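Propose amino acids for all 185 sites.
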């Protein structure tokens, strides 16, 4: 059985994007980026909602590598090599190594979790909230950046109530602290 984790960079005040839905968080520099490259390489399948998938499709195109540095190129390769499920009722198609899921999202994820091995990542707070409400997330990884955005899109969706137990923490480059939690039940 696979484990599902939800991981995103966020501000100290709990936001993954700023008030205008802009990211607003500093771009990971090489050392921190390497951490995320390794995380992507350890991921057997990535789950995306429409918005996060559209943001991450930046890495789909090998032409983007022309202006990229070595660590970005490494991430692009890892991202393209990782299978993706994209949950959307508005998208009509997705790119290479991705499959579109437009109905029965929780049933698809339950089946994937029980029939797979390894780590499944969740990107995006809306999809993560749906999975959390269904009890499908095994670990929350909060990458706390030392910045305050003052509002925006929260890591945890409003109205989502969870009991969590700490699994550990780690200091990372750029002043980022990784906080890891599991559901308490």
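Proposal:
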């Amino acid at each position: 059985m696979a484990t599902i984790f939800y991981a995103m960079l966020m501000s100290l005040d709990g936001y993954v994007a700023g008030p205008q839905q802009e990211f607003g968080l500093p771009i990971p520099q090489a050392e921190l980026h390497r951490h995320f490259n390794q995380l992507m390489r350890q991921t057997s399948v990535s789950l995306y909602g429409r918005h996060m998938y559209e943001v991450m499709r930046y890495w789909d195109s090998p032409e983007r590598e022309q202006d990229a540095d070595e660590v970005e190129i490494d991430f692009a390769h890892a991202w393209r090599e990782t299978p993706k499920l994209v949950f959307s009722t508005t998208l009509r198609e997705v790119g290479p190594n991705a499959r579109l899921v437009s109905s029965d999202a929780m049933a698809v994820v339950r089946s994937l979790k029980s029939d797979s091995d390894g780590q499944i990542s969740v990107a995006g707070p809306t999809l993560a909230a749906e999975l959390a409400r269904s009890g499908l997330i095994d670990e929350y990884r909060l990458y706390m950046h030392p910045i305050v955005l003052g509002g925006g899109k929260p890591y945890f969706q409003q109205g989502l109530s969870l009991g969590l137990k700490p699994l550990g923490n780690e200091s990372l480059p750029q002043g980022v602290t990784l906080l890891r939690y599991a559901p308490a039940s």
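The mean pLDDT is 93. DSSP finds five helices and ten strands in the chain.
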